[in-house]
Specification:
Number of domains: 2
Radius of gyration: 18 Å
Number of helices: 10
CATH architecture of the largest domain: 3-Layer(aba) Sandwich
Distance between the termini: 13 Å
Shape: elongated
Strand content: 5-15%
Order of helices and strands: EHHHHHEHEHHEHEH
Oligomer: single chain
CATH superfamily of the largest domain: HAD superfamily/HAD-like
């Protein structure tokens, strides 16, 4: 029988498309006629504070987009940002299957700004699957910093070796492994199912 009790899931790239990645930002610049290099330079200065919850989405946009007059509104731009979130149905179905069994504590462990994270939880019904939401914007720290893994494990009150972490980025998994958490590299749903079975997860 598996000793795994907790399954931590990344969200962007595993359950949903990424919320506000480089591809989405470039598309936003093309859509709204914003200079990409200028925007990206400003984004780089404030991105970590945005993800750690130190800036609201309005404050982030004031620094990156609306520092000058625009012919579109903040509301229009935020609507575009939200539209970049798309479900990955097979991954969500597998997660619902795991949640319905009730054998494991399911938690998210992701880097996301507060407003986009709240939107994604609500829009895609993540509360139906997850008991705990450990987002960078709630914890004030981000992957791959070692502290976020330590805090995540402490919140669950299980031992690191009783936890598995599913992510699509190898660096995040390497740092989780250093914290004693069992890493699972997400590539596709079939591979994820097999990787979880290898760890003894009933699915």
């Amino acid at each position: 029988m598996s000793d795994i009790k907790v399954l931590f899931f990344d969200v962007g790239g595993v359950l949903l498309t990424n919320g506000w990645d480089r591809v989405s930002r470039r598309l936003a610049c093309e859509t709204f006629g914003i200079d990409w290099e200028e925007f990206q330079d400003r984004h780089d200065f404030v991105a970590l504070d945005f993800e750690k919850g130190n800036l609201t989405i309005g404050e982030y946009l004031e620094r990156t987009v609306f520092y000058r007059e625009r012919d579109f509104s903040q509301a229009e731009f935020i609507a575009f940002m939200k539209s970049q979130s798309v479900a990955m149905p097979d991954s969500l179905a597998l997660t619902r299957e795991l949640a319905s069994r009730g054998d494991y504590l399911l938690a998210t462990l992701n880097n996301e700004s507060r407003e986009l994270n709240d939107y994604r939880i609500e829009t895609f019904g993540l509360r139906d699957m997850f008991s705990v939401f450990l987002s960078s914007s709630y914890l004030g720290m981000a992957k791959p910093h070692k502290e976020i893994y330590r805090v995540a494990v402490e919140i669950t009150q299980y031992r690191p070796e009783q936890c598995a972490f599913i992510d699509d980025r190898e660096l995040n998994l390497e740092c989780a492994d250093l914290a004693g958490i069992r890493p699972v590299h997400f590539k596709d749903v079939n591979q994820l199912r097999e990787s979880l079975r290898y760890l003894g997860v009933a699915i």
